[in-house]
Specification:
Blueprint lengths: L6 H32 L3 H5 L13 H7 L2 H32 L7 H13 L4 H17 L6 H7 L4 H12 L3 H9 L4 H12 L1 H17 L2 H6 L10 H17 L5 H10 L4 H24 L14
Helix pairs in contact: 1-15, 3-15, 4-7, 4-8, 4-11, 4-13, 6-7, 8-11, 11-15, 13-15
């Protein structure tokens, strides 16, 4: 028999759904605005006429971005940093979490404490910058001048994600590991055949965290990769450089007329809209991948049977 909904419960549901809908609209609106701004004219944007629907619809902005070879070179750099950065960070995070999940590890408590300690007290920007520079110097000494690899390797550590993986590995029944050892499995086989398959949900979640952080990574790439190597910039740094140049040209009363004319020739009629077009292009991969990863969030961390 269906239970009758209490009045207080009904009110709670209405309020909860209302809050969720409002929150969802707040999250979605920036993307809607970016799409509208990308297809609106710069004049309409400057006048504040664009709210939801595009004003003075045009496709010049998207066309200028699509035909901008430099933008797509930087876009490919972002794909490079995201893929290799995620693989590198996820790989050694799994190895570190697997080791920390073992009670037989010597000084396990101390290692876990130092890991958590980095979440309480950060070393600061200067030591991190020195870490990047030292890594770049080591690469230069062995003949690697592409600073993208510096960003990939020096950005790998994340204590929170390692703790998430460690907790997932600790939840795997020890009987399964013991059964694998009886069958002659090595340590690496136990990790790859037992722990990783039974922790797919957590690993997928951590991979998404790493991927998003690498895709949106801007600050250190901006600081480490100089303008002389702009061909190695990720797309986020390229967008920031675009905004800086446009702001300088627009706000400087003494700016050379040739510079302004050159800018208007490259992005006719839609210079500001080009920024939003770049943003829309930059967010598309995350929007495309997220629905496929999201299904793992609801799955249990431990799946399988116990062999006794």
């Amino acid at each position: 028999m269906k239970r009758k909904t209490e009045k207080s419960e009904l009110i709670f549901r209405i309020v909860a759904y209302f809050i969720l809908i409002v929150f969802a609209l707040i999250c979605v609106y920036p993307l809607i605005y970016a799409l509208s701004a990308a297809f609106s004219s710069s004049a309409a944007l400057n006048a504040g006429k664009v709210v939801i629907i595009p004003v003075d619809v045009q496709g010049t902005a998207f066309l200028s971005v699509i035909t901008d070879n430099v933008f797509w070179v930087n876009y490919s750099n972002t794909l490079f940093l995201t893929f290799f950065g995620t693989v590198w960070a996820l790989g050694y995070s799994i190895l570190g979490a697997y080791a920390l999940s073992k009670k037989r590890l010597m000084a396990r408590r101390a290692f876990n404490f130092f890991l958590v300690f980095t979440m309480w007290f950060s070393a600061g920007i200067v030591p991190q910058y020195q870490n990047y520079m030292n890594t770049a110097e080591v690469f230069a000494n062995i003949g690697i001048s592409d600073l993208k690899w510096t960003v990939v390797l020096a950005m790998g550590m994340n204590a929170t994600n390692i703790i998430l993986l460690r907790n997932a590995f600790e939840g795997v029944p020890s009987e399964i590991e013991e059964a694998a050892r009886i069958d002659g499995a090595t340590e690496m086989q136990i990790l790859t055949k037992v722990y990783i398959p039974m922790s797919k949900a957590t690993i997928a979640t951590v991979a998404l965290f790493f991927g998003i952080s690498r895709w949106n990574g801007y600050f250190w790439a901006y600081k480490v990769i100089p303008s002389s190597q702009s061909f190695s910039w990720p797309v986020q740094v390229y967008i920031r450089d675009y905004i800086d140049k446009y702001t300088t040209i627009s706000n400087s009363p003494h700016q050379m007329v040739d510079d302004i004319e050159q800018w208007d020739t490259k992005y006719p009629y839609a210079a500001i809209s080009a920024v939003y077009s770049m943003v829309v292009c930059a967010v598309i991969p995350i929007l495309a991948i997220y629905p496929f990863i999201q299904k793992y969030f609801a799955k249990g961390v431990n799946m399988g049977g116990v062999k006794e």
